[in-house]
Amino acid sequence: MNESLFISIIIGISIASVPLIFAAIGELLVERSGVLNLGVEGMMIVGALLGFVVMSHTQNPYLAVLAAMLGGMAIASIFAFLTQFLLTNQVATGLALTLFGLGFAAFAGRGYTEETIQLITAVPIPYLSDIPYLGPLLFSFNPLVYLAFFMVYLVWWFLFKTKQGLILRAIGDNHDAAHAIGHNVVRYRVMAILFGGAMAGIGGAFLSLVQVPIWGEGMTAGRGWIALGLVVFASWQPFRIIFGAILFGGITILQIHAQGLNINVSAQYLSMLPYLATIVILVSLRMRLKNKTNRTVPNCLGRIFHSTT
Amino acid sequence: MIRLIPRVENSTAMVLLSPLLALTLTALSAYLIFIFVLVDIPVSSVFFTLFVEPLIDSYYFSELLVKAAPLMIIGLGLSIGFRAGIWNIGAEGQYVMGGIAGSAVGLYFYNVEALWLLPLMTIAGILGGMFYAGIAAFLRIKYQVNEILVTLMLTYVAVLFLSAMLQGPLRNPSGFNFPESRIFHDSAMLPIIWEGTRLHIGLIVAIILSFVAWFGIKKHMFGMQIKISGSAPRAAKFAGFDDNKTVWYSLLISGGLAGLAGLFEAAGPAGQLTPGLPSFYGFTAIIVAFLARLHPVGVLFSALLIALSYVGGENVQIEYNLPSSITQIFQGMLLFYFLACDILIKYKVVFFKTKN
Questions:
Q1: Who's near B259: CB < 8 A, 6+ residues apart?
Q2: Phi, psi at residue A2, to the nearest 5°?
């Protein structure tokens, strides 16, 4: 195979999978704490909008990413407040968050649909990127790509190597017991939800700051939902998120290249591939597990916690 | 400090008051947003256009009912599934599939003028939606795959499928390559029940269905089964209820009704199959179901309320050049406030001073 085509496919896959890694790793931590937030799509689109707006006004990529993060956290805080303090149903509240986020972003972003921005481009790491083969493959990515992989490591380290991570997992598995021995369930969960919002926000911003230089209504196109599927696929294990996201990114790139190769299938059928693949991936996971129950699913996922004391 | 004390019994007063409180809070928030967004337009006149005009103008009122009908039908199906704890979030996809299946039948018999055509299309629409939701039911039962994700992914697939159909087999052969179907003949169109408007028989069907569902849930064993499966899964198991049956019925009923709504939309207001068929009704119906507290007759009223926000939103868009997405913001906010206010039913809010 042509070497440059190979490298461009690898880079394409990484670009397609990074938004999913961000959104999924955030949601993974949230679900580990026992909270099911179905608002990922809504948080992503708000991040995509805010990142774009700040970029177009300041041309500063750092501020843009920061704004996306804060935007995701802000809208996640609505969810946190409702589910943790007003004890609302998490499924319904998450859906409301998605609907609200999509509406809000479409409303607030109506003046920006004609604009374009300067994309955040890849930064080859000096010297390392000059290594033949390995250089372009490992050391010539967009800084946010490295950040995504680092966040996966960070979440793994937090969950399995720190005391707070252990407490968070304990809360996700049995909030009543964790409460009884004196841990603040609500505080942990609120923090986790805000972290999830921040990650979904960056994931959304990646779409409008790295993938395409434009903003459009509904540009997340279901990626928030796919991220939710990835968390299940990963069996709540951080590193498996990367695997799932790359698989998914690969299918997306395959679809784009197939369209370029004039394969005689309507574009619509090829565009269905990522969504159908998500379903197939979830089914295949279950076939692998067969009759074994999935022991990694947090026991208290989606359950309401209220302490009377 | 504020504290929540659980009530011994649910408060009946709050069951009625909390939706009103939620509405008031939504209106107040909308007011604040308008003050913020609209600088040179008086907010009161926007409010009038948004919430009052659709109710007093007969044309706008008929449009309100046109939009309420699909919301009622889809919301009704969802309310049944949600009761059982089956989260069919992709009604939009089933709605589109029902529209495609029903329209395909109508277009196949394009030159036929017969009384049986519309019923046949209706059945095809229902079956289309059922089949599509059935995929999720099958995968959930066979492979324990979460139905939320499957129905949602299939929604994106359905919209792409519609587009493929309209550029392929179902495209109008003499339509200059526009991605639209032929316009249905009269016998493939829903009867109009209000002369001079687009209001079709779907509204009556919706009302009948909701009362049928109400009696069904009250009197039939299946109603009991979905209620208990949703609120007390363990008890349902001890009672010997078949879990798989609950999943199948919940998804097939909600999918079939969504498909019916899709066909009604194509054979009613649209009169043909267009790319504009997916109109977010499937998602909005989730709000409708929750606002009705999953009550089949309550769905009728919450659908009217949501339809009001649709028509009002369109009017505001035309008269004040505001984006129609403002409707979605209202609907999202309304659901937020509604869920939040419901805490007053189960809990007492107590203010007390902290002693130092």
A1: B94, B95, B97, B98, B99, B101, B102, B125, B126, B127, B128, B129, B130, B132
A2: -60, 130
Question: Whole-prediction pTM value?
Answer: 0.87
Q: Return the CATH class of domain B65-312.
A: mainly alpha
B167 touches chain A (CB under 8 A): yes
Q: Which residue of A215, A272, A281 to mutate against B (max B Cβ within 10 Å)?
A: A272
The residue of A236, A279, A301 whose CB has the most chain B CBs within 10 angstroms, and thus the best one to mutate to test that interface, is: A279
Size of interface A-B (CB pairs under 8 A): 131
**Can you tell me the mean pLDDT for B275-279?**
84
Q: What are phi and psi of B186, to 5 degrees?
A: -55, -40
C-alpha separations of A16 from A116, A208, A250, A299, B211 in Å:
20, 12, 8, 32, 48
Q: From the CA of A209, how many Å to the nearest CA of chain B?
A: 23
Residue B1: predicted pLDDT: 66
Query: Domains of chain A by range and CATH?
Result: 13-289 (1.10.3470)
Percent of chain B with pLDDT over 90: 26
pLDDT at A137 over 80: no
Question: What percent of chain B has pLDDT above 70?
Answer: 97
A173: closest CA of chain B, how far (Å): 19
Query: Is A222 near chain B, with CB under 8 Å?
Result: yes
Minimal-distance CA residue of chain B relative to A270: B160
d(CA B316, CA A217): 20
Query: How does DSSP assign B39-73, residue by residue?
Result: SSS-HHHHHIIIIIHHHHSHHHHHHHHHHHHHHHH
